[in-house]
Design goal:
Oligomer: single chain
Strand content: under 5%
Helix content: over 70%
Largest sheet: none
Structural class: mainly alpha
């Protein structure tokens, strides 16, 4: 049964659905967690930020580990860590312990996500790879689409702890399939880039610490100033380390490719709008609008439902329209939706939110799967896991920083209460800023991904994703 593509697809899809559910579920549960564990806003924010920060930080390292030690082995290890930490989080009785477990869970999620992409890339080829990544995008969309509503129902029925237990149990099922998965590794994999891993991870964690704790400690507090300064210094050190390594985990030479850089910019921008809304809209809908967690989660389906449907249609769309144009349009649509969403207020009903949330969701849905396939198709097969790690790191670092920045703005406008007065105005400020940043990113991406005279033709993998033409 090993090497059967269907088994690989099932295992990858089940794990892929679980990862965004763990994020969106925690987001819906934040108000309940704060009340139950008597925790302040900064501590509760680490339930989401801790998971995302380690997810982003360890993406590159786990990609390199997968190339070196085997994609199946690292995939299994990651799923085991994710599931174990999730089950322990479901019984945690202290906010500090819960925050630590969420950070550990993020490490496992990074290993599972990077290896999952590489397993697909190594198992499927040609048009089959295009179809597999379309379904892969749909799985991400399903996790995003149903995560908030499922989490809301779980909270209403069983309490907030169920939002950590359910994805963990799905991970246990995936572990049962691991013996049936094929093993693969890079034929000439290099050593693990520990200096790069430590410098990047430390920089990102210090940056998030500064944004999360800044409103509580004060922006001029020496701890915050030192955190930001140290983060900047470590990022400079990371770039120097990567340039000098013969086999870096973050191949900076890829960023010299305008096309690859444009793909990473588009991916980072889209999640920087989507994910903070998934994190903070549930709190707004429950505390300001007055919805139950279940109803708030169901409302967010307006934002995420297009991510379930559109990835399957994108494969057909790019038979008619160039893939780079689809990417640029998707970012522009997200910008338009964020600007439209500024109409929200304490009396916002479904009719008011439907248009802007669906618009953002359409922009996200058009790009899911397509961006991954274009990025992985831009690197050599032997570096598939590392290439997947680079675009996923761009996504996760962007969304993690965006969540922290948005949280800092809302903590400042609401005096740390996430309630009106201040929540509505703060959220509108955030949305206008998101719209402006996304519009600028759309224009920049258009310049970066356009075909240049004399450019090298697209890689076969990318061509295959465009319908095998």
């Amino acid at each position: 049964m090993r090497n059967h593509p269907a088994v690989v697809l099932v295992a990858v899809l089940l794990s892929t659905i679980s990862l965004p559910v763990s994020l969106t579920g925690a987001s819906v549960a934040l108000p309940e967690i704060g009340r139950d564990l008597d925790a302040g806003l900064a501590s509760v924010q680490w339930v989401v930020n801790g998971y995302n920060a380690t997810f982003a930080s360890f993406m590159l390292a786990t990609g390199a580990l997968a190339d070196l030690f085997g994609r199946r082995r690292v995939f299994a290890t990651g799923v085991a860590i994710f599931a174990g930490a999730g089950l322990l989080a479901a019984v945690a009785g202290d906010i500090a312990l819960l925050d630590v477990l969420r950070a550990v869970s993020g490490v496992g999620a990074a290993a599972a996500a990077t290896s999952a992409s590489a397993l697909l890339a190594g198992t499927f080829h040609g048009p089959a790879r295009a179809r597999a990544f379309s379904v892969f995008g749909t799985a991400i969309g399903a996790g995003l689409a149903f995560g908030p509503s499922v989490a809301g129902l779980l909270i209403d029925t069983f309490g907030w702890r169920a939002v950590f237990a359910a994805p963990a149990l799905a991970g246990v099922v995936v572990l049962a399939l691991v013996p049936l998965l094929p093993e693969s590794r890079a034929p000439h994999a290099g050593r693990i880039d520990w200096p790069g891993t430590v410098s990047f991870t430390s920089a990102l964690l210090l940056l998030i610490f500064g944004f999360v704790q800044g409103p509580e400690f004060g922006w001029a507090d020496p701890r915050i100033v030192v955190a930001f300064a140290a983060a900047l210094a470590l990022l400079v050190l990371f770039a120097r380390v990567e340039r000098r390594r013969a086999d870096p985990m973050f191949d900076l030479t890829l960023l010299a490719s305008h096309r690859f850089l444009g793909i990473c910019l588009a991916a980072a921008t889209i999640v920087a709008v989507l994910v903070p809304l998934l994190v903070y809209l549930p709190s707004y809908l429950t505390t300001v609008v007055g919805l139950t967690p279940g109803t708030a989660g169901a409302t967010l389906i307006l934002l995420t439902a297009p991510t379930l449907v559109l990835p399957l249609l994108t494969g057909a769309l790019i038979r008619l329209v160039p893939a780079p144009l689809v990417v640029v349009v998707s970012v522009a649509v997200v910008a338009a939706g964020a600007a439209w969403a500024t109409v929200l207020g304490p009396d916002s009903g479904t009719a008011v939110l439907a248009g802007p949330l669906l618009t953002i969701g359409v922009g996200v849905g058009l790009s899911i799967g397509l961006l991954d396939q274009m990025a992985i198709g831009s690197v050599a097969p032997a570096r598939a896991a590392t290439g997947a790690g680079m675009i996923n790191t761009a996504r996760l670092a962007s969304e993690t920083v965006a969540i922290a920045v948005v949280g800092a703005v809302l903590a400042s406008t609401t005096a740390g209460r996430l309630d009106d007065p201040g929540f509505t105005g703060g959220l509108r400020t955030v949305l206008w800023t998101m719209a402006a940043v996304a519009a600028l990113a759309a224009a920049t991406t258009a310049l970066l991904v356009r075909r240049r005279r004399g450019a090298v033709p697209a890689e076969p993998a990318v061509t295959a994703y465009r319908g095998g033409s």
